[in-house]
Amino acid sequence: MEIKRRKTRPIQVGNIKIGGNNPIVVQSMTKSKIDDLEGMRKEVKELIKHGCELIRVAVPDKKSIYFLKKLINEKIFKIPLVADIHFDYRLALDSIDAGVDCIRINPGNIGGREKVAWVISKARSKNVSLRVGINSGSIDKKVLRKNKGDIKDSMIESTIEYVKLLEDLKFYNFKISTKASSVLDTINVCEAISDKVDYPLHLGVTEAGPAFSGSIKSSVGMGILLSRGIGDTIRVSLTAKSVDEVDAGFVILSSLGLRKVGVNIVSCPTCGRTSGDFYKLVSEVEKITSGVKKNLKIAIMGCIVNGPGEAKDADLGIAFGNKKAAIFLKGRVIKRVDKNIAIGAFEKELEKII
Ligand code: SF4
């Protein structure tokens, strides 16, 4: 079964297009503070290595602009850059001047129509796109009261109001993001917005949680929306390293057949036949394969008897026995090696196929 994506109008963000028939973009946000230049350089490099396609950085105050400019001039952002702005429209104007590709604002907290118009006018002049919308935590109290405290209806009303404001200003180069920490609210709001307008949608479950529970919540929320053809870019928000967000994003997309990028690891659940510290071996293989861009299915199995057969559709696999390990290609065993050198031998075979 192939997912039929809903038609959205493509927008330009730096050198990539989001929406339309373009691939669903995986993005993340740096956790480093912008004045921690060394931390930022390292984090951005890692994100790009993991395949991140759009990076958002927080620009919280005036002094951040100096560091933002410095990092942009160093050309560390080899992928489009989004400045995350709240409350102060001047930070948006300065970030555009510094050379970002997109501004994320919540028009409701930027200080009125006139200030939004100034941001739009600057963005238009520099071909910079916008990401607009709200999170469930930042709904205008008046709107919330009007909708009798209903988060979903309030978020839809505010978002459509923002869309109308931008359209009034004849600005169309934007995507929409409406995120709630409740999975069900996120699904309902995004679906309703997608029914009403055709701007690209950014998906995310805000404040999803730590890596384990956050990835599950995000997968459920985004998975349901993506399976209905909704979503043009995603971020898996995790209380974890930003590269984990990128890895999780690609797993969600590839599990639905929406992107074929990187390694899809399948490993057996283990049973009474498994020997030794299998979890450790799996995490070692995971480490070796992280960052591989080629679309590959890699199997890691806990016994030699059933492993290769159970994973015969994997491009490359390894099955661990008591003392030996078998390395196999599409279910055909090509090598049997001692278990203590198995990871190295597997790595060599992986290099051959990438
Ligand atoms: Fe058990 Fe072997 Fe199947 Fe893993 S591959 S679940 S160890 S039978």
Number of strands: 15
Q: Between the first and last Cα atoms, what is the distance in angstroms?
A: 28 Å
**Structural class by helix and strand composition:** alpha/beta
What assembly state would you assign to the polypeptide chains in this entry?
single chain
Strand order of the largest sheet: 3-4-5-6-7-8-9-10
- Secondary-structure element order, N to C: EEEHEHEHEHEHHEHEHEHEHEHEEEH
Q: In DSSP terms, counting alpha (H) and pi (I) runs of 4 or more, how many helices?
A: 12
Strand content: 15-25%
Radius of gyration: 23 Å
Shape: elongated
Largest beta-sheet characterization: 8 strands, parallel, barrel
Helix content: 40-55%
Each distinct ligand: iron/sulfur cluster
Core attributes:
354 residues, 5-stranded mixed β-sheet, binds iron/sulfur cluster
Describe what you observe in this structure.
The protein has an 8-stranded parallel β-barrel, surrounded by 5 helices. The protein is an alpha/beta fold and 354 residues long. The longest helix is centred in the middle third of the chain and has 18 residues, at 151-168. 41% of the residues lie in helices and 20% in strands. Bound molecules: iron/sulfur cluster. Iron/sulfur cluster is lined by residues 268-271, 273-274, 301-303, 306-307, 310.
